[in-house]
Amino acid sequence: MDYRLFRTLLFVTSVAFFLAFGSARAQSSADSAAISAAEQALFAAREANADRWAPRALADAQAAFDAALELQFKRKRSSAEQMAKRAERLAVLATVQSRYTELKDAVDRKATENAGLRRQLLMGQGGSW
Q1: What is the pLDDT of residue 21?
Q2: CA R_g for the chain
Q3: In the chain, fewer beta carbons within 10 Å around the N or the C end?
Q4: What is the C-alpha separation between 59 and 46, in angstroms, rounded?
Q5: Residues 75-103: what's their mean pLDDT?
Q6: Which long-range contacts (CB under 8 A, 24 or more apart) does 71-76 make?
């Protein structure tokens, strides 16, 4: 008899726990989606070498993401979602700036190389054909 009472108590406690925390989890799914999107955008920015080519924008995105996590922890859902969206936009900006700067650097290096080759050809040091 004692065993059935324990099982019933455990069952009721489990149901109460899942009802309480399951509904809280459902409410924060929108926050989690925004934070997940921001996290993915930060990952993409790091993959694009934003820490080298756009460190300021990446630092701003990371600060906004950290603030979003803190706001989510404090259960300020709307503020956390807004901050997560801001972090995502800043991370996308860092990615774009990084790719732009990296491509611009590659074009500048190629232009310098081409100018040197042009100089060699004009001065007759291009070799004989």
Answers
A1: 63
A2: 28
A3: C
A4: 11
A5: 91
A6: 72/28, 72/31, 72/35
Distance between alpha carbon 24 and the CA centroid of its chain, in Å? Answer: 25
Residue with tokens 């069952």: 11
Q: Are 129 and 82 spatial neighbours (Cβ–Cβ below 8 Å)?
A: no
Residue of 70, 60, 61 whose CA lies nearest to 88: 61
Say what the pTM is.
0.66
CA 45 from chain center: how many Å?
A: 6
Angle at 76 between CA 69 and CA 36, to 5 degrees: 35
Would the pLDDT of 60 be above 90?
yes
pLDDT digits (tens, 9 = 90+) for 18-52: 666 654 554 556 568 889 999 999 999 999 988 88
Taking phi over 0 as left and psi of -120 to 50 as alpha, with beta for the rest, 98 belongs to alpha
- Concatenate the DSSP letters of all residues of 42-111 into one string: HHHHHHTTHHHH-HHHHHHHHHHHHHHHHHHHTT-HHHHHHHHHHHHHHHHHHHHHHHHHHHHHHHHHHH
